[in-house]
Write a structure and sequence with these properties.
- With 175 residues, the chain is α+β, with helices and mostly antiparallel strands.
- The protein has 2 domains: 118 residues, Immunoglobulin-like (Sandwich); 37 residues.
- It contains 1 helix and 11 strands; from the N terminus they run βββββββββββα.
- The strands form 3 sheets. The chain has a 6-stranded mixed sheet with strand order 2-11-10-5-6-7, with no helix packed on it.
- The longest helix has 37 residues.
- The radius of gyration is 33 Å and the shape is rod-shaped.
- The protein starts with 13 loop residues before the first strand and ends with a helix.
- About 3% of the residues have low confidence.
- InterPro entries: Ig-like_dom (IPR007110), Ig-like_dom_sf (IPR036179), Ig-like_fold (IPR013783), Ig_sub (IPR003599), Ig_V-set (IPR013106), Myelin_P0-rel (IPR000920).
- It is a single-pass type I membrane protein.
Length: 175
Amino acid sequence: LPGLQVVVIALALEVSVGKTNTVTALNSSNVLLPCTFTTCIGFLDLVFTWYFNSTELIYQGKIKSKASEPTMVTSNPRVEFVGSTTGKDNNISIVLTNVEFSDAGKYTCHVKNPKEKNAQHNATIFLTVVQKSKCDNTVTLIIVGVVGGLIGLLILFMLIKRVVLFIIKKTQDGK
């Protein structure tokens, strides 16, 4: 049909947690859970939500527009928002403070953009919590002690040799 044009609008909301979707944290430390989003047509009243193990809401924020920073809607006291959306990256990362073994699991960063006909997308990151390992230095201390002792004996032997050679030379000079 002449004059008929088909317009295709590609909704391109993407959410990413970076190159790897696994993070390991030491027990009692703080851990960054990264998340960024991209959209081709911008955003208005965008809502982002972080979930733990798919059901527990741990942080929710809202971003009015590209010119404004996110505002917190709901938050867990151990979750701190560290992202920024007024710069180049639409960073909606959080930090989980004082990590415990029970914090290990699946964290989902979910984004809903009303400007893209309420397009929704999410990305998942898996957190593993490990205990700080205590290093046993006994073998290292034994090796260092033996090597140090051998070096000390070598220096002592060289010193005794010098003294003996000095005494021999003095006695020969006296005769």
